[in-house]
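Ticket 4471: requesting a sanity check on a complex prediction with fe (iii) ion. Repro inputs:
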Amino acid sequence: MANTTQLLTNLHAATMVSSDTAYGMIKDAAIALKDGKIHWIGPRADLPAAYQDYDVTSLNGRLVTPALIDCHTHIVHGGDRAVEFEMRLNGASYEEVARAGGGIVSTVSATRAASESELLTDALRRVDVLIAEGVTTIEIKSGYGLDVDTELRMLRVARAIGKHRPIRVLTSFLGAHATPAEYKDRDDAYIDDICIPALRAAHAEGLVDAVDGFCEGIAFSPTQIARVFDVAKDLGLPVKLHAEQLSNLGGAKLAAHYGALSADHIEYLDEDGVKALADAGTVAVILPGAFYTLRETQSPPIAALRKHNVPMALATDINPGSSPLNSLLLTMNMGCTLFRMTPEESLRGVTQNAARALGLTDVGTIAAGQRAELAVWDVKHPAELAYRIGFNPLYTRIFGALA
Ligand code: DI6
Ligand code: FE
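Returned structure tokens:
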């Protein structure tokens, strides 16, 4: 990538830079890339002479957007839960499956049994599908180990993905995802004996970019999550939270209190909670895949989030239980069709606001100084990205430079 100077012309750019123009659109734009960064973006007519000797590629009128970002995944996991999918279709609820010892804990057994290389091979197959959709940044959580060794193994696999593929990986420690069978009815002991020591050990190995938790009746209480967040704060790590997915325990407020990067799911969030997110600058991460898979009926409060200017991101939540959804493009469609987000909100949700949900400022928009991470699409209008169902119009993905 060193010494690469490329000039992309004959394109339309949905920059997603906040402006008065929808999508921050620049028609007939040019984009100059140098050494893995965007050096210049603007109308082709305004291109400074300095860029004229760059290596020129015409994109034949295609649309260019920031590369996509999946800011919430559990893409590293062992096994699958097709049988539980079948159970639910035979009438069992998600809670019933969980309380019967299925659910998250069954994936825990499969993940503990899997070697690092098995976990990596399986995850890479799923990652490749996202890459083919123009994704260049992905967040990956632990949380299916629930013992020190396996939590660390998951995070090492997550880091390895960034070495095996041209993609940037951010990790989240999710030890507070569920209580493993050996700690049944001893949630507090699990937090003290396993979760917190695992977090410290993972952090010491440089494996943790953020700390997550699952705040829910079938998982951990706000008080228990707060104890994990206190350790995160001690270690200087940002936090985020699975909050208000199945009920309202005040998780989003707790997250906001800790200045969380994001509060995720939030189907049951009330307006007070929305205001708390707005005040804290916390991003609302909308996860339609879980809503769809669990056939939930309570939609996240999109109108209230809009009203209070809470940035909304969209993510796949790829996991074997509640969201076996391996497409960010389909996620965008679901955000629009299920939750009435606009196509522009959906694109912002997988670019600018997804970056923000990860605490990143160098990706998510097309602007000078940003990393050269772009997606080039065979579409006429950006709304088409969210509009088609099960169709991938990616022409090419730029990760540092045009290949
Ligand atoms: N919320 C979810 O939807 C997933 N985890 C979480 O905290 C469910 C994960 C699973 O069922 O395996
Ligand atoms: Fe999740």
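Notes from triage: The CA atoms of residues 162 and 169 lie 6 Å apart. Leaving this open until the requester confirms.
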